[in-house]
DNA sequence: CTAAGGTAGGAAAAGGTTTTCCGATCGCAG
DNA sequence: CTGCGATCGGAAAACCTTTTCCTACCTTAG
């Protein structure tokens, strides 16, 4: 239903159709200035008839704001980035803004190239996300004052804003739940301890035990895989400490643990209770029994990132490290 | 290292610094027109000194091309969308273009809103992706001639360009491999047959069997889950047809099958060989034994989408349905 | 030495929108 | 009936870049 001729319909076409000037059309569209109701309606009718859509580029050129945020992922759009993106995109699109995707894959060269592209595209802000092994150098903005948020990723500059799940709190909640349901001997099987998250979850585990006056069980580190979950759990069960519950560093380890326990004749949760971490749907549901797990609420983390980004773009600077709560999702394993 | 004052540095600042006109700066930057080498260098030096970055918005306003493609996902950035995005983004960013992410979640209302936003942002093309249960109505472009590609998703308009993995060929390859390794009684445990992919994979399975003169085994449909993989496999094994191999509709079903077989005392692959579909890393690796699986090469599918999108934007129209080959990744289960 | 041709670089328009500023018209009051 | 004020709407600049066209200068050849 475009007019069918000579390319895109512009504000000039609308002005001509409505018999007014382009300034008037602009005012009618944006509800600015003072216009007679009749004029406004006349313009809006023409807008509708011509199916006019204001060119955002032209507007951006004028306002200096493009309504676009760049998302630089170092996770190759992996499992953790997805829900974050989803939350972020949801909030931003509600505010009429969009998200530009870039995949840097931990390659500093690529990241720099993407950054150049984003800056040239006049983005209003940058969100950096990653696999979160450790703190990363701050993005080099070359002195351009642009809002940046690190989410599920940690800048080494304390003046930056960083958003993370509360790993420690999540582990604390999980272990407290185990204690409340009567468990007294709680071990921890988890990932490599060069992950900050691993150290924090360990801290939460210890804190909950200490609060209840229970002795800390053993902690075993391995890779984030089911195979290691099985192996470490088997190792744990033949040791002197006979756990009646295991806090697992992630769902894959937990699932490996569940398999190992079942195959060695132990029942979950009767003999040993199990809590995972990530609440990854396919894992927790496929686990036998379905796995109780800590959800990092990544979607909400992304949404919060979006809200704060909007605020920053509107002029409220923010900094510091903020941790958002995790929640425990109960199923059958604990 | 921006000049520190009065906002972003523009082409005017560069012109002033180099002592030339803005037109000359533009020519130096784009290698157009005729300029004395000395002048060109003088300008480039000023560009560097001021850290000037041309405003893409202004350029786009002039050329009518924004260098941006919109990606509308109905998969909530799910597991299948990710690698496609990755391939797409890789190719486009090599061509200096960017990807705008939109999550429509199969909500026609949201999709329309996103489409409006994208059109207003003057995108040069649209990529639509989804969970691919069935053909979907073509995106309503309201007569605006804009390149559209449906990938892992199927438009109901044959004049649109649709890119899909060759499900039939993938299944054919998998079954042929089973036959070549001596299997003669090959069953098929798969997902709900309202998926086009399910019907196509079934076709490939039958074709490979027919080519080898083998009788078709039973086909069992269920949900795409491990639990159904286990249940259907158990059901299959107590039936009259004693399969020595199973083609599974996806990796989750295959993993369920592997568990069911192992737990009923059968060995994989010695007694029953297993092939999955999707080659989903966490599944195939966690499977015991590691799963041989058909890879849909989604990353390459995304890359091809990017290449064709670039061609379309440059003026070469394309249409029809194109299926890209799958490949069989051998591990221990077959 | 003069004229012609070629080349370097500048001026200005175009691209679509917002916004400011100003003029004109209408109505009402004196 | 005249004048003032308020309100409506138009003209034009600004945002930043590209590109076309043109001028001026230099070189070379006659």
UniProtKB/TrEMBL annotation, chains A, B:
What Pfam family does this protein match (any one)? LacI
Domain HTH lacI-type per the UniProt entry, residue ranges: 9-63
Q: Which InterPro entries does the record match to this protein?
A: HTH_LacI, LacI/GalR-like_sensor, Lambda_DNA-bd_dom_sf, Peripla_BP_I
Q: Single GO molecular-function term? A: transcription cis-regulatory region binding
Show the CDD domains listed in the entry: HTH_LacI, PBP1_sucrose_transcription_regulator
Q: Which UniProt keywords apply?
A: DNA-binding, Transcription, Transcription regulation
Q: Known PANTHER family for this protein?
A: HTH-TYPE TRANSCRIPTIONAL REGULATOR GALS, LACI-RELATED TRANSCRIPTIONAL REPRESSOR
Under what name is this protein listed? Answer: LacI family transcriptional regulator
Species source reads: Neogemmobacter tilapiae
């Amino acid at each position: 239903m475009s007019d069918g001729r000579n390319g895109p319909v512009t504000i000039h076409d609308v002005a001509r159709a409505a018999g007014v000037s382009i300034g008037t059309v602009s005012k009618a569209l944006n509800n600015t200035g003072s216009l007679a109701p009749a004029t406004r309606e006349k313009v809006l009718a023409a807008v509708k008839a011509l199916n006019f859509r204001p060119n955002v580029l032209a507007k951006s050129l004028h306002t200096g704001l493009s309504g676009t945020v760049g998302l630089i992922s170092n996770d190759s759009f992996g499992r953790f980035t997805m829900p974050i993106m989803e939350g972020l995109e949801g909030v931003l699109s509600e505010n009429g803004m969009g998200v530009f995707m870039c995949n840097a894959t931990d390659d500093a060269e690529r990241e720099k190239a993407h950054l150049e592209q984003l800056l040239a595209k006049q983005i209003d802000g940058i969100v950096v996300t990653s696999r979160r092994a450790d703190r990363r150098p701050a993005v080099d903005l070359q002195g351009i004052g642009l809002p940046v948020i690190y989410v599920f990723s940690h800048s080494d500059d304390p003046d930056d804003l960083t958003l993370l799940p509360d790993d420690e709190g999540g582990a604390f909640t999980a272990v407290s739940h185990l204690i409340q349901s009567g468990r007294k001997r709680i071990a921890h099987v988890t990932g490599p301890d060069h992950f900050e998250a691993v150290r924090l979850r360990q801290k939460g585990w210890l804190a909950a035990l200490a609060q209840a006056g229970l002795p800390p069980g053993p902690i075993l580190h391995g890779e984030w895989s089911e195979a290691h979950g099985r192996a470490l759990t088997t190792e744990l069960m033949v040791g002197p400490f006979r756990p009646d519950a295991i806090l697992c560093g992630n769902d894959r380890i937990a699932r490996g643990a569940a398999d190992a326990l079942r195959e060695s004749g132990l029942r979950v949760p009767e003999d040993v209770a199990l809590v995972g971490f990530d609440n990854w749907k396919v894992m927790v549901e496929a686990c036998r029994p379905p796995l109780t797990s800590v959800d990092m609420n990544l979607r909400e983390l992304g949404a919060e990132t979006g809200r704060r980004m909007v605020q920053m773009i509107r002029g409220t600077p923010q900094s510091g490290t903020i941790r958002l709560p995790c929640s425990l999702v109960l199923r059958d394993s604990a």
